[in-house]
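Chapter summary example.
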Amino acid sequence: MSFTEEEVAFIQSQRLVRVATASADGQPDVVPTGFEYDGAHFYIGGYNTAGTRRTRNVQEGNHKVAFVIDDLTSTDPWTPRFLRVYGTAELVDREGQPILKITPVTSWSFNLDGRPLAEARGTGLRRTVHQAS
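The structure predicted for these 133 residues follows.
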């Protein structure tokens, strides 16, 4: 399976992702950064990517990553929505810098239509297991 039209629209409406990697000894690291999505993979770049922990973590052999794309459409009433992804990362070269190319493995989305949390609670999470491309 892949992302629904609603999930793709949400992804394309957002600019930041909070991506988590872990070092070879298990130390987690999370950082907000920009991203690109090509319809199959997510690309996480940034400034001086060769010196980032996320790059070192993948270089050290820990290819598992997690990230969340989220926002609040309102604070009154409280209206959160998000897409969370577990995936595998590899380093690819873009303009002489290593960036993460993330292949989604499993994802969860919640309340992408932006209903107040009191209304959205009963809908639960939409879980998708993605096929390798």
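To summarize the output: The chain has three helices and eight strands.
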